[in-house]
Amino acid sequence: TLSFGDDQWQLHSSKRSSTMTTLIPSKIRALAHRRMALAALHADSSLSVRLKRYNHHMTLVRFLEAQGGVL
Predict the structure, then answer these.
(1) Of all residues in the chain, what percent are helix, strand and coil, respectively (each to 5)?
(2) What are phi and psi of 6, to 5 degrees?
(3) By the 8 A CB rule, do 33 and 61 touch?
(4) Which tens digit of pLDDT belongs to each residue from 40-63?
(5) What is the pLDDT of residues 11-23, one digit of tens each?
(6) Distance CA 36, CA 60 (A)
(7) Residue 42 has what DSSP assignment?
(8) Within the chain, what is the greatest distance between any pair of CA atoms?
């Protein structure tokens, strides 16, 4: 809050920014591959190609979730 002194405000803002902007690469990649898998199902391709792309991306999602502990 702004009612604190400048030093305390900086301390609070630095704590908040470090927790809010913490990036978990495996979680981000898993989410990206999950979205690519869903996009593959809606692509304008044959069913076999769409299923192959979907399975490829979901395999990567499962691997990343197992490796990084992504929920």
Answers:
(1) 75, 0, 25
(2) -60, -40
(3) yes
(4) 999 999 999 999 999 999 999 999
(5) 444 444 444 456 7
(6) 11
(7) T
(8) 63
The total of other beta-carbon atoms located within 10 Å of residue 31's CB is 14
Contacts of 68 (CB under 8 A, 6+ apart): 24, 25, 26, 27, 30
Q: Which token pair is 44?
A: 């304008």
Q: Are 36 and 2 in contact (CB under 8 A)?
A: no
Neighbours of 33 (CB within 10 A): 20
CA 66 – CA 68 distance, rounded (Å): 6
Q: What is the DSSP letter of 48?
A: H
